[in-house]
TrEMBL record:
InterPro entries given in the database record: NAD(P)-bd_dom_sf, Sc_DH/Rdtase_CS, SDR_fam
Species of the source: Arctia plantaginis
Function: Catalyzes the NAD-dependent dehydrogenation (oxidation) of a broad array of hydroxylated polyunsaturated fatty acids (mainly eicosanoids and docosanoids, including prostaglandins, lipoxins and resolvins), yielding their corresponding keto (oxo) metabolites. Decreases the levels of the pro-proliferative prostaglandins such as prostaglandin E2 (whose activity is increased in cancer because of an increase in the expression of cyclooxygenase 2) and generates oxo-fatty acid products that can profoundly influence cell function by abrogating pro-inflammatory cytokine expression.
Family stated for the protein in its record: Belongs to the short-chain dehydrogenases/reductases (SDR) family.
Protein name listed in UniProt: 15-hydroxyprostaglandin dehydrogenase [NAD(+)]
Keywords for this protein: Oxidoreductase
EC number(s) from the headed UniProt entry: 1.1.1.141, 1.1.1.232
A single Gene Ontology CC term: cytoplasm
GO terms, molecular function: 15-hydroxyicosatetraenoate dehydrogenase activity; 15-hydroxyprostaglandin dehydrogenase (NAD+) activity
Domain of life: Eukaryota
Residues of the signal peptide: none
Oxidoreductase in keyword set: yes
Substrates-to-products reaction catalysed: prostaglandin E1 + NAD(+) = 15-oxoprostaglandin E1 + NADH + H(+); resolvin E1 + NAD(+) = 18-oxo-resolvin E1 + NADH + H(+); resolvin D2 + NAD(+) = 7-oxoresolvin D2 + NADH + H(+); resolvin D1 + NAD(+) = 17-oxoresolvin D1 + NADH + H(+)
SUPFAM superfamilies recorded: NAD(P)-binding Rossmann-fold domains
Amino acid sequence: MASELVKRYLSVEDKVFLVTGGAAGVGAGVVRALLEENARHVAFLDVLDREGSLLEFELLNKYGPLTAKFIKCDVSDEEQLANAYKYVLNKYRRLDGVINNAAVLSVDESIYKRMVDVNFTAVVHSTMKAFQVMGRDNGMYSIGGLVINISSLLALHLSNRLPVYASTKTAVLQFSMAMGAQEQHSKSGVRVMTICLGPTDTAILDRSNLQNFDKKFSEQLTSRVQSRQKVASAVTGILHVMEHGKSGSTWIVKNDQPAYEYTEKINEAFKILSETY
């Protein structure tokens, strides 16, 4: 009943979506959920060829022809990402929503650039492409739309652990807040929201993957494995924000709890930080 009192900005039904990092984990959960809610079409991007192809096969059998399309794409490659957007537009002549979910987590310093490129630079590029396509002020399709950028609770927690990963997620948060500001939204009609996910039961926190971390931090992550939230909980939270989130808002989805808005506290924190600016 409470959710019915919240303004509903979007109905998923008959809409066209693009999801990055959509072949597995939370991304795949979002793809499935959008089609379950009667989205017209969902294109999902990933570098995981086998997983993406299997998911596409599953979805086409369940929901019918043209409902889902896997596009093998390294989102950090601007040309590949631009071509993915071009495919969707050529096929459906519209785009209603983009969920930027792709991410890389590692403590291997040799791939720090990869984390920055995927976790932040690709989010910026994809968001800008979404504005070019959906923005009412650009005149291409002029329909407005939404962008959801997935951040992390690590963006809100100052720590010396995972400094590159955490920094990319902090950058996603501040970038999304700026892109979703009222001035931008009133011109473009594109809502931009940020979701900070808590530890979620995906491969990124798989026990075998924890071997790549130092012993102390690996033990800390492992101790949280039993309490990390289900993918379904993260997906439910993301859909709630899609439908009800105001542009520029920040949300938290953690511990299998309903999504809750954190915008006011984020704004208060930035106000304090900027007092001496």
